[in-house]
Specification:
Length: about 550
């Protein structure tokens, strides 16, 4: 059975005892299902019985489900959590378990989700892309809707978010944010859910982000262990700087022996940067000093090389990062952060550095990687080798220019998007044309480096990096604002369609006044540049007129 059919057999619609729909669930096997805690709260609370409709299994009767012991993690005061594990009163043998999958979550990853918004009891597909971390403590990942997709609405909470290409479950819709007509929707990544429910790890596949040995040095009470606070703050800043592509992509760190103050700080930072382990160690996060907690999900892979063979480390890198044996592969949509620690305690440290780590560090910029490479001892031979690769001239300069090329390409996509969208809305100014100028600056750098003028290129590259960083920040902010306009217009179109459906059901299809109001609203939403304020008023005027007829008011 392919995933196109399989994914229909783990979908669940959740209702309260009155039959009202409150959200969705994801079947983990024939007995257990996953959803959001707020869905359960809305349906009566953690002691309530919820009705579970197996919408992908036509022959299956409606089931009854309750929260299991240890399966309740409601949203706290900081909104972290909001997950619940339910158990069916009777197993449903027709279920196909949802494939929960651990993986890095790059910006731009195409995804889809099936929910039950108001007026669509049988469900609708949402289609969109991932746009970056956010929400409480960075636990969530934002979902950007495609223009041809309905927005996330109530009724989607608790449903699985699927990677479009593989059909694997990478998250769970947690909700939406609405303010002044603007929509933003979010998911909880699978790794965060697995962290809250350690018993679910048997249901998850894919390579974990962090080796378990990173959490052995401090247990659950780091405040009673001596660790390097200044280094911890520096490390948290480095993790948090993931989106900033300036600076050398390789950082060589000497920690001292396992259990030393700096080694413990590194282990602690890695654990708190990992979605799965940070969720499992919520109390740990709350006890460490301010400024030492990196954003959740800011490490994509952390390998403890101590005792591992060259092949074991190489395999770990390949599993998580999808790199070919020679470190080939396309540059990802977003930078990935990798820690390889205790390199000099590996089974064959010289081979590991020469065959795996050094080639990876040399191409870190081209591969979209940021590397923190940890050694126990300053005297280890690999330290000097890898530090030479992290210097700006010559390899580091080439890597930084390559990253600038990527940044210009990203800026070009943002500029093209801004031009296309701004033309659709009344009052939107023409976006600034920056790409040609920025590409010219980067070409100047490349020419200087190719002609051997490394000193000039090294003196000017920082300024150009800062310009592009600011340009991308402004471009992404503009994209978010313009995408909000598209979402508002789409929501108005759906509302107009809903009102039109209501008019048909009431037998008001040929009503002259209603037809003219509908035509006016339709034209504002589908022809020419859209003024959202005027269009909203026109849609509401049409809806109010229909409601008036339904209540018996004269024409």
């Amino acid at each position: 059975m392919g995933y196109q059919a399989e994914r229909r057999r783990w979908r669940v619609r959740l209702r309260d005892r009155h039959g009202r729909i409150h959200g969705a669930g994801t079947m983990l096997d024939e007995r257990y299902l996953l959803t959001c805690a707020h869905v359960v709260e809305q349906a009566g609370g953690p002691e309530a019985e919820l009705s579970a409709d197996f919408v992908g299994i036509l022959e299956a009767p409606t089931g009854t489900a309750k929260v299991v012991d240890g399966g309740w993690v409601p949203a706290g005061s900081d909104e972290r959590g909001d997950v619940a594990l339910l158990k069916l009163e009777k197993p449903e043998p027709g279920v196909f378990p949802a494939p929960l999958h651990r993986m890095p979550l790059p910006d731009g990853l195409p995804v889809r989700a099936y929910g039950f918004p108001p007026g669509a009891d049988d469900g609708l597909w949402f289609r969109g892309t991932l746009t970056g971390e956010g929400g409480p403590a960075g636990e969530w990942v934002q979902l950007a809707r495609r223009p041809d997709s309905p927005p996330i609405d109530s009724g989607y909470s608790g449903t699985a978010v699927l990677a479009e290409d593989s059909g694997r479950v990478v998250g769970m819709v947690v909700g939406r944010y609405v303010a002044d007509g603007d929509f933003a929707s979010w998911m909880i990544p699978v790794e965060t859910v697995l962290g809250y429910f350690g018993g679910l790890r048997d249901w998850g596949d894919g390579s974990p982000a962090v080796d378990p040995t990173f959490s052995t040095g401090f247990g659950s009470a780091p405040h009673v262990v001596a660790y390097d606070l200044a280094f911890a703050r520096k490390l948290a800043g480095w993790f948090g700087d993931k989106a900033n592509r300036s600076g050398p992509p390789v950082w060589v760190v000497v920690t001292g022996e396992r259990g030393s103050a700096r080694a413990v700080a590194l282990d602690l930072g890695v654990v708190l940067a990992d979605r799965e382990r940070a969720a499992a160690a919520g109390s740990l996060r709350d006890t460490v000093p301010e400024g030492t907690v990196p954003p959740s999900g800011s490490v994509d892979l952390a390998v403890d090389a101590a005792g591992k063979s060259v092949d074991e480390v190489r395999r770990r890198l390949a599993e998580r990062l999808s790199l070919t044996p020679d470190h080939g592969g396309p540059v990802p949509h977003s930078v990935r952060t990798v820690v390889v620690n205790a390199i000099d305690d590996a089974a064959e440290p010289d081979r590991l550095v020469g065959e795996v780590i050094a080639p990876l560090a040399d191409r870190a910029g081209q591969l979209g990687l940021r590397l923190a490479l940890g050694f126990r001892r300053e005297s280890s031979p690999g330290v000097t080798t890898l530090r030479s690769l992290s210097a700006v001239p010559p390899g580091g300069l080439a890597s930084r220019i390559s990253l600038l090329d990527n940044a210009v390409t990203e800026l070009a996509a943002l500029e093209e998007h801004a031009v296309a969208v701004s033309e659709r809305f009344d009052g939107e100014p023409e976006p600034p044309a920056l790409v040609a100028r920025r590409r010219g600056l980067v070409n100047q750098l490349r020419t200087a480096a190719d002609e051997g003028d490394v000193e000039w290129a090294g003196r000017h590259i920082g300024e150009i990096e800062q310009r592009l960083t600011a340009d991308l920040a402004a471009g992404n902010a503009a994209k978010e604002r313009l995408d909000d306009l598209i979402e508002q217009r789409t929501a108005l179109r759906f509302r107009l369609d809903s009102y039109s459906d209501k008019a048909r059901k009431l037998g008001l299809v040929e009503d002259p006044l209603l037809d003219s109001l509908y035509a006016k609203a339709w034209k504002l939403l589908y022809e020419g540049r859209c003024d959202l304020r005027v269009a909203t008023a026109a849609v509401e005027e049409y809806g109010d007129a229909i409601c008036g007829r339904d209540e018996g008011e004269p024409a």
